[in-house]
Amino acid sequence: MNNKKQFMNNLRVQHPLTTALLLTIASLYFYFFMEWLFFLTKPSMLNVLSVQDQLAVLLLAPLPALLVLVFALFAVMLPIYSLVNRNNGYYYQDYLLIAIPALILACCILLLAENFTYTLFQFGMYRFPGYDRLIYTILFIYLWYRCCKILYPFLIQSTENKSLNRALTIVIPILLLMSLVMATTQFKDFTVPHLNTDPAPITHRKFPNILVLSSDGINARNMSVYGYKRQTTPFFDSVKNELLIFENHLTNSQTTTGSIAAFHSGKLPTTTKLIYRPDIFKGDDAYQHLPGILMRKGYFNGDFSVRHYIDPEDINLKEGFHYANYRNISGKRLALPTAVQRAYPTASRFYDELFERITTRLSHLLGRSTMSNPFLIVTEPDNHWAWDLNDRGRVDDLKQFIVKAATPFYAHAHLLGTHGFKFHPANPLFSKGQKQTKPWMTDFYDDAILDYDQYAAELVAFLKSKNLYENTLIIFTSDHGKAWRINETIPLLIRFPDKKYTGIKRDNSQHTDITPTILDFLNQDIPNWMDGRSLLTSKRDPIEPVFAVQKSQSLPNEKGWHRVVAPQPPFYTLGSINATYCHMLYRLKLPENILKKEPVKGHTRPCPENLLPSPSQAHSALIEHLNQAGYDTRSLKPQKPVSD
User: Fold this and answer.
1) Which of 70, 134, 245, 431 has a CA between 20 and 30 Å from the CA of residue 477?
2) Domains of the chain
């Protein structure tokens, strides 16, 4: 009898570990399942996947976290559990074993609550940037404690609850088996060709630093350096003889996301399918870009923009930047190995997004960083409560990066002072004494451009003070026209070291040309996967089309800001495909298959009407472009399009 009692006691001591392991696995799969459902109900990366691929993501994404948690359970919790004394028959040390699954459930409930309050009330923990965040911290600790209390009976009663044992020991192995089978079938032999075109790394003695200073939504025709009646760009005017000025520069995308992605990659948005969030770089495109080429050749890279919309990590630009938006993103975070990311790109991206969602919140609760809402950064400029959400913060951070960076450095900065529909100029001149009573008021817009000009002057003066100016290639540009228009010329001003190239170019140019131009200046091979071409050694035929995209149907929130509705095949986030021939833009609206045309405002070199394609010719060319990009155009029946 005593032997039997001793055996049962030993079983009871050993069995909680098995149960804790199964509870950990079950809670992790539950956590990923709830997040997976959440992503399916909003515009996300999952919306553009087939049902099979969506299920693959669900089954594969938990595996990396599972390995980490199982290791923590056995390597950390079990040794502590073994050392804790048992007193009077109470097994409080069992809480150590359920701390991990309880933490997973607490994190899951936290995210569910955040999703609920933000969706219904536009309210979340980001509204508590100071010590008031302690309220959330205390609530989360209490939530963790309650989850431990909920799981504790499952642990201590596991030997008696046969139905629980049966469920855990059958369902969990089946889930794991399905995940392993999916891991085998979804494996991609991933290779990225033509990334390093020059096996010899560059050195700071030979190659220049590169600084790209972009600002949102600037019309070239509102800049005095392009002939505007108001002096909105006094600094650019003063250094005009040092610049290579492109008078007819065109965007490749209506959105900042698509435009900056086209610039980084040298690829058209129709090539990468990165038009607007939730689009991201996928497959080879995630690794084929200018920052990656420069990084592999010895550059130290930094990005100073805005989270969610164009941040390198958020758009899945891999192995391109060391630093981005106030954080190190190279070797400083728990990321998946490169081999895993390349073998399972979609599941790895989903894992990264979930990891980012919970770690930013936990870091906010612990006071290690301050959580922000990137959506409100560009929609509620009046509510910017953190210093690092404005252009002043970006410019200051950029200067600190330049001071600390090993040369050569590559820095990309995108400012938002010129982003509408309202503007908040630091030093009002044209709008002095006025109030913004309606959107897009010209006086305020011109003052915002003046701010951009002053930031440019400040950075140039800073480079000179550090003896870096003459060895820095500087590019000044924008992403699209005012109010997200694509029928506007936008600025492209380049200051080459030692003023090697200066003057004015009136040929059409596009954003995808900037990256090849940089590589050409560095005397590097231009990869054949780039759609753009160097503006230094090539000339564009006036009637050669410049393609640009617009996002698909979007719905406004109560602030008036638009979000793309759930993307649908065959065009997903693509709403219109456009081609500019000389000074005339042809727009094909999708999926309605309606063509319209309009002149590009600010264009300085119009062509005779007889050189322009007819509407039918432009319609055919746009469909052919979509076909070559891999879109299914069978719904776009050949027809005589409507023309303005």
Assistant:
1) 431
2) 2-185 (no CATH), 209-325+373-535 (3.40.720.10), 554-628 (no CATH)
Rounded distance between C-alpha atoms, residue 498 and residue 63, angstroms: 53
Is 476 within 8 Å of 239 (Cβ atoms)?
no
Instruction: Tell me how long the chain is.
Output: 644
Of 243, 311, 268, give the one whose Cα is nearest residue 476.
Answer: 243
Provide the total of helices (H) and of strands (E) in the chain, helices listed first: 18, 14
Residue 468: partners with Cβ closer than 8 Å, 6 or more residues away: 209, 402, 407
| Paired strand residues for 585 | 580, 598
Longest dimension (CA), the chain: 105
Q: Strand ranges (DSSP E) for 135-226?
A: 209-215
* Secondary structure class of 316 (helix, strand, coil): coil
Tens digits of residue pLDDT in 349-385: 888 888 888 888 888 888 777 766 555 555 554 444 3
Contact criterion met (CB below 8 Å) for 549 and 275 = yes
Instruction: List the structure tokens of 554.
Output: 């979007």
244-302 confidence digits (pLDDT tens)? 999 999 999 999 999 999 999 999 999 999 999 888 898 889 999 999 999 999 999 99
Alpha carbons 626 and 372: distance in angstroms, whole number = 37
DSSP3 helix / strand / coil % (the chain, rounded to 5)? 50, 15, 40
In Å, how far are 8, 173, 514, 539, 540 from 606, measured between CA atoms?
91, 68, 23, 16, 14
Euclidean distance between CA atoms 32 and 34, whole angstroms: 6
Least confident of 427-436, 467-476, 497-506, 551-560: 551-560
- Whether omega before 570 lies within 30 degrees of 0, making that bond cis, reads yes
- pLDDT given at position 307: 83
Closest alpha carbon to 266 in 242, 241, 291, 232 = 291
Provide the token pair at 144: 């963790």
Global pTM? 0.80
| Selection from 305, 309, 337 nearest residue 215 by Cα | 305
Instruction: Tokens for 193, please give them.
Output: 């060709």
- Tell me which of 296-300, 343-347, 378-382, 438-442 is least confident: 378-382
DSSP helix/strand/coil, 54: helix
